Amino acid sequence: MKIAIASGKGGTGKTTLATNLASYLAEKEEVVLTDLDVEEPNSGLFINADLVKKEDKFKMIPEWIEDKCTLCGICQKVCNFHAVIQLGTQILVFPELCHSCYACSELCPTDALPMIPQKMGELSHYHRNKLTFIESRLEIGQEQAVPLISQTLDYVDRHFPNEIIKLYDAPPGTSCPVIEATKDADFVILVTEPTPFGLHDLKLAVETMKELKKETGVVVNRFGIGNDDVLRYCKEENIPILAKIPNSRKIAELYSSGELIYRKLPEVKQQLDGIIEHIL
Amino acid sequence: MKEIVVISGKGGTGKTSVTASFAYLGGEETVVADCDVDAADMHLLLQPDFSKAEDFYSGEVAIINQDECIKCGKCAEVCRFDAIPIIDTQYIVQPLDCEGCGYCARVCPTNAITNESQNVGQWYISNIKTGSVMVHAKLAIGADNSGKLVAKVKNEAKLLAKNRNSDFIIIDGSPGVGCPVVSSLSGANFVVLVTEPSVSGLHDLKRVYKLVKKFNIKAGCIINKFDINENVTKEIGEFLKKENIAHISNLPYDDNFTKAMTVGQTIVEFDKGQLQTILTESWSKVKQLTINN
Predict the structure, then answer these.
(1) What domain range is A269 assigned to?
(2) How far apart are CA A9 and CA A173, in angstroms?
(3) Do B9 and A40 touch (CB under 8 A)?
(4) Residue A204 in contact with residue B141, Cβ under 8 Å?
(5) Of A144, A261, B150, B229, whose CB neighbour count within 10 A is largest?
(6) In this structure, are strands A31-35 and A131-138 parallel, antiparallel, or unpaired?
(7) Do A195 and B143 touch (CB under 8 A)?
C-alpha cells in the first residue's frame, strides 16, 4: 500500500503528519517512510533511526570529446532544451538545462558526446525497530527535482515488497515534482489549513489529483483558525475529511523542537486512528 | 529600479503575508510580482482586476499520428521517460510523462510524430488596491516549466516597473531550492528570507541561503513567530551573524496573521498594533538595505 502525503500550499503540516503517522504505525507493523521533498527534506529531523547506507544519485549528462567531434551541429539541433550549444569550434554543455534524454549523445554520428554521470543528490537509508526511513536531498544548484524523486521511488520499489505500508512525504505545489511523487500512490492524503490560502491551494491540489485519477482524503491542520470554507468545499466535492488536527500553540512548540506530537497529545493520536481506519 | 525577492526555503513561514504587506506599504511606487506560480496566493490579498490575461506556452509534448504509425516501436525504445506505452496495440504518448525532448519524432521512420507546444498556464497584469500593478500567473495542472513561467512574470514586472518609473519590484518566490526559486533569484538586488524558529525552518533557511550565496546577492531575514521557540530563534540569530545576513526583525506568534488573510486583507491593513509597527519598520529597513547595496 502506497500512501502519499501532499498539499498545494507549503507549511500546512505534511511532514508533521507523515512523520507522526509513520512512527505511530511502526509501533505495530513494518513501515517505510520516504521523504520526496528533495529540495527541502525535513522528515529526518523528526525521525530517530540508524543509518543503513548512503549513496550518491546521479543524472546522466553529455560530455564533449573534442577529438571525435566533426562540428556537424546535429547535437545542438536535436537538443530541445538548449543545453548543448555550438560556439565557433567549441561545443558547450549546460548540465542544469539537460533533461538526460540522450538525443544528442545517441544521434551524434561520431560518438563525440558520451553520457557521463553527474551527482545530483544523495539518498540515505535509515532503520530502527519497525520503521525504515529513506531520504533524498538535492544538491544545491541542481534545479530539477524530478529525476531524483524518480530514482528514490525506484530504490524503495526495489528494496521493499508491496505489502509493506509505504508513506511518501511529497513536495509542496502542483507542478512536475508533485506529479512524480504521487503518480504511483494508491491513496493521497491532502493536508490543508482552514484559511483562504489553504483552500485556494487545496483546490489546485484536488484538481491535480483528479487529473491523476487518485483517491484522496483531506486532513485539516490547525483546525479552529480561519473559517469553515474548507469543510464546505470538501463536502461539495465529496472528499472525505480524514482528520482535524486542532490549532494549538503546544503543537507548534513541540514541532519547532523536532518532537513527534502524537506521543505527547492523546487527541492527536485519536485523529491518527481515524486516518488509519479510513485508509487501511 | 530595484528588485527585492522574498523567499523562505520552507513553505508556510508567512512569506506571502509579509510580501503582501510590503506591497501595500510600497504603494504606487512598488510593482508586485507573484512568482510562486505553483500555488499563487497573493491575489487573495491584493484584489487584482485581471485587466490583462494571456496564455503561456512553453515546452512541447509529442503526439503520434496513428494513421502514419507502423508500430515499429523505435519511439518507445529511445524514450528515456517511459512516456510511450502500448495501449490496445497502439503507441500512445502520455503527456504527463513526456518531457518534450523530441527524440522520438527524430527517430520515427514515417514522420508520424509531431511536437505541439504546450499551454502551461496563464499570466496576468492586474491593477491592485495599492494603486500599483501586479504581475501574476496560474500554472496549468501538473505543468512542467514553472521556472520559465516565473521568468516571464518577472520580466513583465520589470517592463512595467520601467515604464512606470517605479522604485521597487517586490517578488513573492516559491518554496524549495529548485528551478522556480533559481528563476526568481536571477537578477535580484536584495533577498528577504522569511523563516520561523523550528528545526525545519532553520534547516531550510540554511539550504536556501546556500543558493542565495551562489548568486552573490545580499540578504536580510525576518523571523516569524520568534516566540514559539526562543532557543531556535537564538540559533537562527547566530547563523545570521555568521553569514553576515541582516537581521531585519522578529514577528510574534499572532492570530492576526490568519485573521487578516481570512478577510482578504494584508496584515498592515488589518492589524493596528505591534504587527503593523514591526512590518512598517521592516519595510523601511528592507528599502534602505536594498538601496545601500
Answers:
(1) 2-58+121-279
(2) 6
(3) yes
(4) yes
(5) B150
(6) parallel
(7) no
Cβ within 8 Å, pair B229-A102? no
A137 and A171 housed in the same domain: yes
Interatomic CA distance for residues A253 and A221, integer angstroms? 15
Q: In this complex, is the C-beta atom of A109 within 8 Å of any C-beta atom belonging to chain B? A: no
> B274: domain CATH number?
3.40.50.300
The structural domain count of chain A equals: 2
CA–chain centroid gap for A39, Å, is 9
Residue-range definition of the domain harbouring residue B257? 2-47+128-292
Q: Please list, in sequence order, all residues whose beta carbon lies within 8 angstroms of the beta carbon of residue A37, skipping any fewer than 6 positions away.
A: A14, A15, A43, A169, A170, A171, A172, B176
What is the predicted pLDDT for the residue at A48?
96
pTM: 0.95
Comparing CA positions, the residue from B269, B27, B31 lying closest to residue B172 is B31
Minimum Cα–Cα distance from B231: chain A residue: A257
- Which of A102, A171, A175 is closest, CB to CB, to B103? A102
Place A90 in a pLDDT band, splitting at 50, 70 and 90. Answer: very high
The grid coordinates listed for A41 are 527534506
Q: What is the pLDDT of residues B133-158, one digit of tens each?
A: 999 999 988 777 788 999 999 999 99
What is the tens place of the pLDDT at every residue in A210-265? 999 999 999 999 999 999 999 999 999 999 999 999 999 999 999 999 999 999 99
When pLDDT is averaged across residues B247-270 and rounded to a whole number, the result is 97
